């Protein structure tokens, strides 16, 4: 399918109901309101065309941008393109999922995560913390820098409640990720989770809730899944 055919198909798949839901969550125009499940059905038409995926993201249309993230090959994407994607991620769904998932599977995961974490721009910082969390979920333990992760845990412990709204959410998620995917730091992550307690995030006109890190991590323990890595974090 060509770029124009994909865009036309996205428009056909969009619905006012889904669009309202996304807008309640903070989505920015332009977009048609396509369910993620329907976007995944289009991946096969984009996946082998790297340039098409890049063009879809550059459209500025949320649905097309999310589809690009599902379709692009993270091993082919350049660091410069990832930085451009992060700058164009104008709401949390693109920052936390699209950019973070692709960046985490790229060759620049740690480098960009650490750079973005320090950004003054909320969505850029969100990209950073979410990228590192995703990176932990797919990376073998022997390749992880435990001292670096420990420093980031302490950073979350000391600053999460004073951070920007959506950064609070992904910092909490980072603590959960460490406690779930890094056995060597599981106890430390659980201690940080207990220290920070409930994290308050304005989720707008939605029923979404911020997971309590202690409860989430303990559920992973109960399921005997601590340290069990994922095959991919692109979703």
Helix content: 55-70%
Largest sheet: none
The SS-based structural class is mainly alpha
Question: pLDDT under 50 segments (min length 5)?
Answer: none
Shape: globular
Beta-strand fraction estimate:
under 5%
Radius of gyration: 18 Å
Mean pLDDT: 97
How do the helices and strands follow one another from N- to C-terminus? HHHHHHHHHHHHH
Distance between the termini: 22 Å
Counting DSSP H or I runs of 4 or more residues, the number of helices is 13
**Strand tally, please?**
0
List keywords for this structure.
235 residues; mainly alpha; 13 helices; 65% helix; globular
Task: Explain how this protein is built.
This is DNA alkylation repair protein. The chain is mainly alpha-helical and 235 residues long. 65% of the residues lie in helices and 0% in strands. It has helices at 3-13, 16-25, 36-46, 50-58, 62-71, 79-88, 92-104, 109-117, 122-138, 146-159, 165-181, 186-196, 213-222. Helix 5 (62-71) packs parallel to helix 7 and helix 11 packs antiparallel against helix 12. It starts with a helix and ends in a 13-residue tail after the last helix.
Write a concise synopsis of the structure shown:
With 235 residues, this protein is mainly α. It has helices at 3-13, 16-25, 36-46, 50-58, 62-71, 79-88, 92-104, 109-117, 122-138, 146-159, 165-181, 186-196, 213-222. It has 13 helices and no strands.
């Amino acid at each position: 399918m060509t770029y124009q055919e994909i865009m036309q198909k996205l428009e056909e798949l969009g619905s006012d109901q889904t669009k309202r839901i996304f807008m309640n969550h903070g989505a920015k125009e332009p977009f048609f309101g396509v369910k993620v499940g329907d976007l995944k059905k289009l991946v096969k038409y984009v996946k082998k065309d790297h340039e098409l995926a890049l063009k879809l993201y550059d459209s500025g249309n949320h649905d097309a941008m999310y589809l690009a993230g599902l379709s692009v090959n993270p091993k082919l994407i350049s660091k410069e393109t990832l930085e451009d994607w992060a700058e164009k991620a104008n709401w949390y769904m693109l920052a936390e999922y699209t950019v973070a998932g692709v960046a985490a599977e790229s060759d620049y995961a740690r480098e960009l995560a650490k750079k973005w974490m320090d950004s003054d721009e909320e969505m850029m910082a969100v990209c950073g913390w979410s990228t590192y969390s995703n990176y932990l979920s797919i990376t073998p333990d022997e390749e992880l820098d435990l001292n670096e992760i420990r420093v980031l845990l302490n950073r979350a412990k000391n600053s999460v409640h004073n951070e920007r709204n959506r950064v609070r959410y992904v910092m909490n998620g980072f603590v959960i990720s460490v406690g779930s995917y890094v056995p060597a730091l599981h106890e430390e992550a659980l201690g940080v989770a207990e220290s920070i307690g409930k994290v308050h995030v304005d989720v707008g006109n939605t029923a979404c809730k911020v997971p309590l890190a202690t409860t989430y991590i303990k559920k992973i323990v109960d399921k005997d899944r601590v340290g069990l890595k994922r095959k991919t974090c692109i979703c």
